[in-house]
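Chapter review: from sequence to fold.
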Amino acid sequence: MAASVLILMSLISAFFFHQLNKKPEASADNIKWITKATPNGQRSVVRLKDGSVVTLNAGSSITYPEFFDKAKRQIKLKGEAFFEVSKNAAWPFVVESQGVLTTVLGTSFNIKAFDNQNTQVTVATGKVKVASTDIDVPQEAILRPNQQANFRLEDELMEVKEVDIDNYLAWKTNELYFDMIPFSEVLEVLEKKYNVHIAMTNDLSSKCLVRARYKNESLETVLKGLQLLVHFNFKIHDGNKITVEGMGCED
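The token string follows.
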């Protein structure tokens, strides 16, 4: 009898020890979300518990659970980030970004999803599935290296094209790359990168398209370079405030 009681007590002790020490699992009820943000003028690297690495561009943030659940590794992105996902064929890595779901098993890719801009998913290695969250207009594509899905803001349609991935990762090495984007968006990028406030006094140049690349240049040098592509004047006030007067597009 004494031996039986001893065995029973040992089993009970082992059960409670296991319960106290086992890793918590995320659920809809007890999930704890963590947000990592990068201010304007800076970049940062976030290492997740599954081994994945996220490089955040300026003015960007990711939100993720303290512990991933067994079904998927879910991330929410605002802004731009480069993902190097730890490979696990049975554990999908899903990024939600401005109406777009990007699903991978193990690969590297860039997502750009700033407010009021097109959302772009660009693949560096491996294979990625992208899909719209709009159930009324379902859209889906499989991307491979040097392919990009561009979700257009104006009509909410997705287009897939071949690109040079190095151009879209230029920000990771402190470079600027603009691929035929409106001048107004160029100024938003400069605000984030240089941590300044830029005010346009009119919209005469806002829709002018810009294709340019700059490496380790000062803000003033970049603005002077852009003047060769777009007609505008600028004035710097107190170091971090700039006014821009547009005068139209280059002929």
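Two observations follow directly from the output. The first helix runs from residue 2 to 21. Helices lie at 2-21, 165-168, 183-194, 219-226.
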